[in-house]
């Protein structure tokens, strides 16, 4: 591992992963317009630095939802980490524990909750809305028993978007990888190759309910003590409704461009969402940003646009593929270095001052980041 920036790990991951697995990680829906748009939107954010501030020790510690964090970062849910490294989520959770940031365990995790709790990481749990409410509540109870600190409900996947790379590759789980939190054998369809179709998409179509509504969110709120985070919100009205239904935070996200192609880029949607919730009675309500974060300066831009923190997905998996736990740890360490550097050069001794930075917009120009 020779990367000097977070994005260097993309090439290292690409070099070691089979094409179908790389495409599953790297790709998006249909034309992948939104994947590119997430980066374009962040690349257009121009920060206006302040000067003559004491930045000899920039403080990056914060609270995300109700979890302490050394950085305004949580590891985003990504399914089946064992596709990328034999240690899978164990490696990423250990790296998160070392970095002092929350790790979000996915419904489609390839490692069990008890094993992940034993790593000492602060855990959040991501919940896809299953057709079987009994199984859904069982997952919630197991998460509570494992000491999870937040429940992240993905609300933008009534069914999986049309991911053409996966269909062309006939994306299929290998026999060694399974959905460890679901019933034994429940991921069987994900192992059966079908021409011109993703077996993983077929599997999730069996599991996920496309009929979930705000009434279901209220139903869940009454049945768990965990703070709810709704992930996949882009419209300010939905953010306000989430707070009214008792959520503690929303994640402004388009699922990394993997659901609705031509959905608004997440960073473009963020300011309006942040403004809409700014006057809510619950001052603790937070807005997080997911989709496209690749650097410490991206995190600073997210804070300036109104986020309390960010979720980091693909870059952590690049590190996992490139070097297991040490690769993940290196990515997170580089991100911390980049964030501290960006804070200092912007005249921000802490995260609160970052939220007061002025931002401007520049014409998009092609960069080097993937």
Describe the protein's architecture and organization.
The protein is of the alpha/beta class. The chain has one domain (8-286, 293-351): TIM Barrel, CATH 3.20.20.70. The protein is built from 14 helices and 12 strands. The protein has an 8-stranded parallel sheet. α12 (296-304) links the parallel β10 (286-289) and β11. α1 packs antiparallel against α13, α4 runs parallel beside α13 and α12 (296-304) packs across α13. It is globular, with a radius of gyration of 19 Å. The model has no long low-confidence stretch (mean pLDDT 93). InterPro entries: Aldolase_TIM (IPR013785), Alpha-hydoxy_acid_DH_FMN (IPR012133), FMN-dep_DH (IPR000262), FMN_HAD (IPR037396), FMN_hydac_DH_AS (IPR008259). FMN binds at residues 77-79, 126, 154, 231, 253, 258, 290-294, 313-314. It is an enzyme of class 1 (oxidoreductase).
């Amino acid at each position: 591992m020779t990367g000097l920036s977070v994005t260097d790990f993309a090439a290292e991951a690409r070099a070691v992963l089979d094409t179908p697995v790389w495409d599953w990680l790297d790709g998006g829906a249909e034309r992948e317009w939104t994947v590119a748009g997430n980066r374009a939107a962040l690349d257009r954010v121009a920060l206006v630095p302040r000067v003559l501030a004491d930045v000899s020790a920039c403080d990056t510690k914060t609270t995300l939802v109700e979890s302490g964090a050394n950085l305004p970062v949580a590891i985003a849910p990504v399914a089946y980490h064992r596709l990328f490294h034999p240690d899978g989520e164990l490696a990423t959770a250990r790296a998160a524990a070392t970095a002092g940031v929350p790790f979000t365990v996915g419904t489609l995790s390839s490692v069990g909750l008890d094993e992940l709790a034993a790593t000492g990481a602060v855990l959040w749990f991501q919940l896809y809305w299953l057709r079987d409410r009994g199984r859904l509540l069982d997952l919630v109870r197991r998460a509570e028993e494992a000491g999870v600190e937040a429940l992240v409900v993905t609300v933008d996947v009534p069914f999986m978007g049309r991911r053409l790379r996966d269909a062309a590759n006939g994306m299929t789980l290998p026999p060694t990888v399974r959905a460890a939190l679901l019933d034994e054998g429940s991921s069987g369809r994900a192992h059966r190759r079908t021409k011109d179709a993703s077996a993983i998409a077929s599997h999730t179509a069996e599991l996920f309910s496309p009929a979930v509504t705000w009434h279901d969110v209220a139903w869940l709120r009454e049945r768990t003590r965990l703070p709810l985070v709704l992930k996949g919100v882009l419209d300010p009205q939905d953010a306000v409704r989430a707070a009214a239904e008792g959520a503690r935070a929303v994640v402004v996200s388009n699922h990394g461009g993997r659901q609705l192609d031509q959905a608004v880029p997440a960073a473009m949607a963020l300011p309006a969402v942040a403004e809409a919730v700014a006057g809510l009675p619950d001052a603790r309500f937070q807005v997080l940003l997911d989709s496209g974060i690749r650097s410490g300066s991206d995190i600073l831009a997210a804070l300036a646009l109104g986020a309390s923190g960010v979720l980091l997905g693909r870059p952590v998996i690049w590190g996992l593929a490139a070097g297991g736990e040490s690769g993940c740890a290196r990515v997170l360490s580089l991100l911390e270095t980049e964030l501290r550097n960006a804070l200092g050069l912007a005249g921000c001794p802490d995260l609160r001052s970052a939220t007061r930075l002025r931002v401007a917009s520049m014409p998009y120009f092609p960069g080097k980041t993937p």
